[in-house]
Write a structure and sequence with these properties.
Helix content is 45%, strand content 0%. The chain has 86 residues and is mainly alpha-helical. It has one domain. α1 runs antiparallel to α2. The protein is elongated. 0% of the residues are buried. It comes from Thiolapillus brandeum. This is Segregation and condensation protein A.
């Protein structure tokens, strides 16, 4: 599945025109067929991950605030009170 997805992605990269004003070499039907193939691959990968009990990972933005916040041990309870740097 992964190889098929990568091959399709490479075909898309290689055939996409450099400028939006240029005509795409693939027909609209072929582009839609590639989209459908990628959707089928993604659905099957999700099915396999669910069957294996793996958690679904989602893409995220690098500037997005994480859901879990890391708190230094020195800030927990009274541990930071005797810190010589303060």
């Amino acid at each position: 599945m992964m190889v098929m997805r990568k091959v399709l992605a490479n075909i898309i990269k290689d055939t996409t025109p450099e400028f939006k004003t240029m005509k795409h070499p693939l027909s609209a039907n072929t582009i839609e067929d590639i989209r459908q193939c990628l959707r089928l691959i993604a659905a099957r990968e999700r099915e396999l991950a669910d069957a294996a009990g793996e958690a679904q990972s989602r893409p995220y933005f690098t500037d997005e605030k994480p859901r879990a916040e890391v708190i230094p041990i020195s800030k927990i309870g009274g541990l930071g009170k005797n810190d010589p740097e303060k």
